[in-house]
Design a protein that fits this description.
Helix content is 32%, strand content 28%. By secondary structure, the chain is of the alpha+beta class. The chain starts with a helix and ends with a strand.
């Protein structure tokens, strides 16, 4: 399935993460046939892993976990980085909103991720705490 294809490219995702930041992939025990192309999932994961990397400039951990929740396949990207204030978290899906310095980001990544997930009938949750990190949890319908 698409999820397994993307996990096969975990080496590519690992290249986004600097030395000093540990990167762990926890695959699902069984194949997850989600309703998404691997190119879509790759784009989403590059986006989320890049943001996690930017949130952990002085080291930490990024975890990519794949699993199942009810009738959905779950992809979770978690970091132990700086986290977000509630004000920032409330705006992260707005087009062109960014906390990065000028020239370092367009503010379109998470907006695009949210649009793609909604288009597939999926769900995107964010949990974040300042100083404790952020978790993006993406749930996509399974192909029956």
């Amino acid at each position: 399935g698409a999820v397994e294809q993307v996990l096969g490219q975990a080496q590519l995702l690992r290249t986004l993460v600097p030395r000093g930041v540990s990167f762990e992939v926890i695959p699902a025990p069984d194949p997850l046939p989600v309703r998404a192309r691997s190119t879509f999932l790759g784009q989403v994961l590059v986006n989320l892993v890049s943001n996690a990397r930017d949130a952990t400039p002085s080291g930490g951990r990024i975890t990519l976990k794949v699993g199942r929740a009810g009738q959905g396949g779950v992809l979770e990207v978690a970091d132990t980085g700086c986290g977000m204030t509630p004000d920032v978290q409330a705006r992260i899906f707005e087009p062109f909103f960014t906390t990065k310095s000028a020239g370092a980001g367009t503010g379109l990544g998470l907006s695009a991720v949210q649009s793609l997930v909604e288009e597939l009938g999926g769900d995107l949750e964010v949990r974040s705490q300042v100083g404790a990190g952020t978790t993006f949890r993406l749930t996509l319908p399974l192909v029956t």
